[in-house]
Amino acid sequence: LFSDIPNDTLVRWDELTGTASILRHNAGHPDGSTRDRQGRLITCELGSRTLTRTEHDGTVTVLADTFEGTRLTGPNDVIVKSDGTIWFSDNGAGIRGNYMGDKAPKEMPYRVYTFSPDESKLYVVDTPDGPRTTHVYDMEGGKAVNGRLFFDATPGFADGIRVDTEGNVWAGFSGGDGHDGVAVFAPDGTLIGRILLPERCANLCFGGPKRNRLFMTASQSVYALYVEAQGVAGG
Question: I want to staple 28 with a disulfide (CB 3.0 to 4.6 A). Which of 48, 74, 77, 135 is the partner?
């Protein structure tokens, strides 16, 4: 499954037939999605400014639409921890204009999250306004503490991120020739590889039975590549 945000559609790609079909239209301008440990689809909706869950029978449940009394600015990406808790970023891309939602004032910072394999660390991407950095935090008692710089993406910027079982961080990347695609960082923040694409990559995930096929959603295309890595479940 992947999102076509401007066309307000969740799209389903069938590997056996090689065809794409509409899973749901008028879907709240969906952005990042993942599945919870029960296999239900968790989706960030920029247009409706909500976090939703698609139940097994196809009905949609709103999980969150406000934070501390303030309406969400537009959930962007989401992960589910092994304990079932859902962590999502409130990116606000849908309120910057009418292309991916409805223009409205910004109320919260723009960020994207993911966890390390043992869930002891939380990675946070500041994207794309302000510093083009990614920070890492220690998780203590369910809270993120001791934040520090993980990498600086300048002159490009990172977007969606995922982690493999070895602790490497895979980041969708933008920045023109030599940067557009995916950048891979070791657990200490060292850049160890790139997958270059002819267009910017907004998000990515590991899929397939062994979670060793990397799916990359770019500006106008979806790319897939088998890699010598395995993605962490739930990310």
Answer: 48
**Are β-strands 9-14 and 2-4 bridged in parallel, bridged antiparallel, or unpaired?**
antiparallel
- DSSP code, position 132: -
**Torsion over CA: 137, 206, 60, 25 (sign):** positive
* Residue corresponding to tokens 């602790």: 167
Provide CATH code, domain 120-235.
Answer: 2.120.10.30
Name the CATH superfamily, with its identifier, for domain 1-109.
TolB, C-terminal domain (2.120.10.30)
Residue 95 pLDDT exceeds 80:
no
Determine the distance from the C-alpha atom of residue 219 to the mean position of all C-alpha atoms in its chain, rounded to a whole number: 15
* β-sheet with 133-140: strand ranges across: 111-115, 121-126, 133-140, 143-152
Query: What is the sign of the dihedral through the CA atoms of 24, 26, 31 and 36?
Result: negative
Look at phi and psi of residue 5 and say left if phi exceeds 0, alpha if psi is from -120 to 50, else beta.
alpha
What whole-number distance in Å separates Cα of residue 172 and Cα of residue 203?
A: 5
Query: What rounded mean pLDDT belongs to the chain?
Result: 88
Burial class (CB in 10 A: 0-12, 13-18, 19+), 97: exposed
Domain ranges of the chain: 1-109, 120-235
Would you call the peptide bond into 187 cis, given omega within 30 degrees of 0 as the criterion? no
Using a cut of 0.70, tell me whether the model's pTM lies above it. Answer: yes
- Could you give the C-alpha distances from 235 to 38, 131, 146, in angstroms and in order? 14, 24, 22
Q: What is the pLDDT of residue 35?
A: 92
Amino acid letter, residue 140? E
